[in-house]
Fold this sequence. Notes:
mainly alpha
Amino acid sequence: MIVHLSLWKGRVRIKRSMRDIAFLVAETHGLSVSQLKERTHRHAVAHPRQQAMWIMMQQPGASPSAIARFFGMDHTSVLYGVRAYQKRLDAPLFANPAGEAA
Length: 102
C-alpha cells in the first residue's frame, strides 16, 4: 500500500494496489481473488467484481486498460462494470414499482 500525505488543504490520499482491492472485496463477499477473476456472469461473482472495478477506478492514475489486464478482460467490460455498479449505487433503496407518490 502506498500512502501519500499532503498537508496542503488537509488532504490524505491512500493508494491501494489492485491486488489489495480485489482481496478486500473478495473477502467481504466470501470469495477468493481467483473466483473474482473468473469469466462468469453469475451475480454472486459479477457484482463483487464490478464493485472492485469501481473502487479501482477511484484510485489516482487508474485506467480501464490496466484494470482489464488485471481481470483478464477487455477495457470496455471494465467500463460497463463500473457504470453498472455506479447505477446500483445511485438507485433508490426503496423504489416504488407502481410509480405512486409515497
